[in-house]
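Structure first, sequence second, as always.
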């Protein structure tokens, strides 16, 4: 297993666990988004400051702003869902979100390659079927 795979697994663990913990916080959606954003910023800040010189001045700031705004919307929707989900149904809502989230980069890859193979079409169908079976 290489370093990128290990980071992907660790990111998956962290992204899989924090929403379940946040669901237990008792904060309403927008407040939990703000608290999460603030704490995440404080956690990331020392690492960002250390490596800021390289890509910061040459970044595509339009893409950065668009990505940040889309991410903010996603965080507000996600934490709004977490705040209202019960411990009994939060997992089901989370699975639904993950399937949609997984389909986006897969669809992006199909568009970038310019073709939808039978294998990829089957993958999309099986992903949605597995999500359906997991939430029922």
């Amino acid at each position: 297993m290489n370093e990128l795979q290990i980071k992907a697994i660790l990111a998956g663990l962290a992204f899989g666990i924090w929403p379940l913990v946040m669901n237990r916080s008792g904060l309403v959606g927008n407040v939990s988004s703000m608290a999460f954003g603030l704490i995440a910023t404080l956690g990331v800040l020392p690492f960002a400051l250390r490596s800021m010189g390289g890509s910061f001045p040459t970044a595509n700031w339009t893409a950065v702003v668009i990505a940040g705004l889309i991410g903010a919307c996603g965080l507000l929707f996600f934490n709004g869902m977490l705040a209202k989900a019960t411990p009994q149904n939060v997992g089901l809502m989370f699975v639904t979100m993950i399937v949609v989230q997984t389909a986006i980069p897969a669809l992006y890859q199909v568009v970038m390659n310019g073709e939808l193979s039978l294998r990829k079409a089957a993958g999309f169908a099986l992903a949605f079927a597995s999500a359906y079976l997991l939430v029922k």
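Margin note: The chain has two domains: 1-84, 86-136.
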